[in-house]
TrEMBL record:
<protein>
    <recommendedName>
        <fullName>diguanylate cyclase</fullName>
        <ecNumber>2.7.7.65</ecNumber>
    </recommendedName>
</protein>
<dbReference type="InterPro" id="IPR000160">
    <property type="entry name" value="GGDEF_dom"/>
</dbReference>
<keyword id="KW-0597">Phosphoprotein</keyword>
<dbReference type="Pfam" id="PF00072">
    <property type="entry name" value="Response_reg"/>
</dbReference>
<dbReference type="Pfam" id="PF00990">
    <property type="entry name" value="GGDEF"/>
</dbReference>
<dbReference type="InterPro" id="IPR011006">
    <property type="entry name" value="CheY-like_superfamily"/>
</dbReference>
<dbReference type="InterPro" id="IPR029787">
    <property type="entry name" value="Nucleotide_cyclase"/>
</dbReference>
<dbReference type="InterPro" id="IPR043128">
    <property type="entry name" value="Rev_trsase/Diguanyl_cyclase"/>
</dbReference>
<feature type="domain" description="Response regulatory">
    <location>
        <begin position="5"/>
        <end position="120"/>
    </location>
</feature>
<dbReference type="InterPro" id="IPR001789">
    <property type="entry name" value="Sig_transdc_resp-reg_receiver"/>
</dbReference>
<keyword id="KW-0614">Plasmid</keyword>
<dbReference type="GO" id="GO:0052621">
    <property type="term" value="F:diguanylate cyclase activity"/>
</dbReference>
<feature type="domain" description="GGDEF">
    <location>
        <begin position="163"/>
        <end position="297"/>
    </location>
</feature>
<dbReference type="GO" id="GO:1902201">
    <property type="term" value="P:negative regulation of bacterial-type flagellum-dependent cell motility"/>
</dbReference>
<feature type="modified residue" description="4-aspartylphosphate">
    <location>
        <position position="53"/>
    </location>
</feature>
<dbReference type="GO" id="GO:0043709">
    <property type="term" value="P:cell adhesion involved in single-species biofilm formation"/>
</dbReference>
<dbReference type="GO" id="GO:0000160">
    <property type="term" value="P:phosphorelay signal transduction system"/>
</dbReference>
Amino acid sequence: MSRGTILIVDDEVSNIEIMNAVLEDDYEVLFSTSGQQALDTARATPPDLILLDVLMPGIDGFEVCRQIKDDPQLADIPVIFTTGLGDTDHEMRGLSLGAIDYVTKPIQPAILRARVGNHIELKRLRDQLASMAVTDALTGLSNRRQMEQALKSEVGRLGRTGDWLTVIMIDIDFFKQFNDTYGHPAGDRCIVMVGAALTRAVKRASDLPARYGGEEFACILPGADPEGAALVAQEISLHVQSLNIPHERSQISPFITVSIGVASARCLPDMTPEMWMKEADRQLYLSKQQGRNRVTS
Ligand code: GH3
Ligand code: MG
Ligand code: MG
Ligand code: MG
């Protein structure tokens, strides 16, 4: 497990030295001696926690905190103010800006260590929860929630530029018979392998393979035109077949196969995520109807 990174921001080097001595054994420590430098460092190397001095020449700590909380890339990083301004008004102001805690100088090493430890642990749990909320536990792929969120944002983005978008739906053929023949745990292993094959078949960093539910998968390919989409869909089909997972009760092949539906078009401003899903699903239904183990677009 990574140790966690802490950014210490203070215009007085002696303060940085005191805090660094408390934290360096347990964390990676980064330093900034001005507000602007702190913002630059945080954007370049987002830390897990920021210890932020209030009184600094140039941009003060309150303003740095405001800018951090305004920046979607940084807003989740916990900020602890470290300051000699121990009065209630200043503490209230810091907390109302979104800081998670307030530590007064002179620094008490044990208190600083404990508070930082608590907040780092909370941040770790929060990150873990956020990642679990968008990940399918069985396959490690994005889950339906993440996929729908990504589709919504792509439909909005590409709807403005009129660029190509492709949505692919994938469903394992005769999977009920597979479970009945080989058992549910083998069914689970089959789903994991198909998910991995799907991941290998998509090429671009912006492509999003996901487990949509049960034995159904989906793939969003931003920018992929019908020709490119058909190639990826064929790749998926071939990758799954070459897993050579025996399926003696499949009516169409001795091995596991998938049926695929492809919706690929220029994204227009009045299109909705639901329209894209419906079209991909309709094409998938046609693949099933026409005999399975095929791609329809
Ligand atoms: P078709 O070719 O028409 O798709 O037939 P099918 O049998 O695959 O379709 P159906 O939707 O009737 O069955 C899907 C099966 O997938 C039923 C369900 O028990 C199984 N299934 C869904 N989720 C899981 C899972 O997480 N693990 C396992 N092992 N099986 C699952
Ligand atoms: Mg200062
Ligand atoms: Mg199904
Ligand atoms: Mg099926």
